[in-house]
Amino acid sequence: MDIRRARSAAELAAAEGLFDGPARPEWCERFLAASGHLMLIAYVDGVPAGMVSGVEMTHPDKGTEMCLYELSVAEAYRRRGIGRALTLALAEEAEARGCHGMWVGVDTDNEAALATYASAGAEDEGLFSMRGWPLRDDA
Ligand SMILES: CC(C)(COP(=O)(O)OP(=O)(O)OC[C@H]1O[C@@H](n2cnc3c(N)ncnc32)[C@H](O)[C@@H]1OP(=O)(O)O)[C@@H](O)C(=O)NCCC(=O)NCCS
C-alpha cells in the first residue's frame, strides 16, 4: 500500500468511488486551491482503495488544529489496516504542519470508525450535538 497526497483534479476524480457522490470538477479545483485542505489517498496495486481528507482550522485563542473531514475505505479493502494507516498519516501531516491536535466527529453507532480511530490513538472527548443551516439545495 502506498499513501500519497492528491495534487490534481484527475487524482480526485479517479478516487470518486470512495466519496459519497461524484466529484465535481469545480469543487475539486476549489478543494485543491484551498489553503489547509488536503486529501491523502491509499493505493493498492495502483487502485485508490481509501482516502482521508483534512481541513486545518485556526482560531486566535486556539492556534491551528486539523479536522479529519472524511475517511473512507472501499469495501473490498476493509479490515486490512488501511483506515488506521490513513488516519495516522493525516495525524503525522498535521503534526508536521504545527497543528496542536486533530479531531473528528463520529456517529456514535459507527463501530468501524470508532474502532479505527481508537486504534489510531484517538481519545474519547465526549458527545456533542450537531446543528446545521442548509443554505443551497445543490450540495
Ligand atoms: C471506518 C473505515 C474507514 C475503517 O477502514 P478499515 O480500513 O476497514 O479499518 P482498519 O482495517 O484500519 O481497522 C482499524 C481498526 O478498527 C477495527 N475495525 C475496523 N472495522 C471494524 C468493524 N466493522 N467492527 C469492529 N472493528 C472494526 C479493526 O479491527 C482495527 O482494529 P485493530 O487495529 O485493533 O486491529 C471503513 O469501515 C469505512 O470506510 N466505513 C465507511 C465510511 C465511514 O464510516 N467513515 C468514517 C466516518 S467518521
What is the rounded Rg? 15 Å
Number of helices: 4
For this structure, what is the CATH class?
Alpha Beta
Query: What is the structural class?
Result: alpha+beta
CATH superfamily: Gcn5-related N-acetyltransferase (GNAT)
* CATH topology tier name: Aminopeptidase
Strand order of the largest sheet: 1-2-3-4-5
Low-confidence stretches: none
Largest sheet: 5 strands, mixed
Overall pLDDT score? 97
What do you see in this structure?
This protein has helices at residues 9-14, 25-33, 82-96, 111-119, and strands at residues 2-5, 37-44, 47-59, 63-73, 102-103. It is of the alpha+beta class. A hairpin with a 2-residue loop joins β2 and β3 (47-59). The longest helix has 15 residues, at 82-96. The protein starts with a strand and ends in a 20-residue tail after the last helix. The mean pLDDT is 97. Coenzyme A binds at residues 71-73, 78-84, 104, 106, 110-113, 115-116, 119. Residues 1-139 form the N-acetyltransferase domain. This is GNAT family N-acetyltransferase.
List keywords for this structure.
Aminopeptidase, binds coenzyme A, globular, 139 residues, 4 helices, alpha+beta, 5 strands
Write the layout of secondary structure elements.
Layout: E1 2-5, H1 9-14, H2 25-33, E2 37-44, E3 47-59, E4 63-73, H3 82-96, E5 102-103, H4 111-119
Summarize the structure.
By secondary structure, the chain is of the alpha+beta class.
